[in-house]
Write a structure and sequence with these properties.
132 residues, mainly beta, Thrombin, subunit H, 6-stranded antiparallel barrel, 1 helix, 6 strands, 11% helix
């Protein structure tokens, strides 16, 4: 059974993987380079240099490492749409913000790539994403 950071059973529908994955957050009037704190089939948490309004629609460009060949990592570009569902000032970094983005438009092939990536690191099966 998966445990959260407080060693309690994880209650989320999709497990989170604590990994740094490069990404770009695109909003109406700006692009921000970032990297994930964690990722799941539901969304991502990352740190950005600018506050983003809660419930803002964003596009994410994730550079997901998918395969290693001869000590090289091949990346897959995933274009995901989402909504900012949490914004907090970062505790450890002044002038930065921790945001959570819920995926509201995720292609099945991208969801499968994320699921396989998470499974490869957790070594446990991940419940497939069911589109609404």
């Amino acid at each position: 059974m998966l445990k959260n950071r407080l060693n309690h059973p994880e209650r989320r529908q999709h497990p989170r993987l604590q990994k740094l994955i490069p990404l770009k957050v695109q909003a109406d009037s700006f692009d921000l380079a970032a990297q994930t704190h964690n990722i799941s089939l539901s969304g991502i948490c990352c740190q950005v240099d600018k506050s983003i309004e809660l419930m803002s629609k964003v596009t994410l460009l994730l550079l997901l490492p998918v395969k290693r060949t001869h000590d090289k990592t091949v990346t897959k570009q995933l274009h995901c749409k989402g909504v900012v569902v949490r914004v907090e000032e970062a505790k450890e970094a002044k002038g930065k913000f921790d945001i959570a983005v819920f995926f509201n438009d995720l292609k099945e092939s991208d969801a499968n790539a994320i699921r396989e990536y998470i499974e490869s690191h957790l070594q446990e099966p991940v419940t497939p994403f069911l589109a609404a």
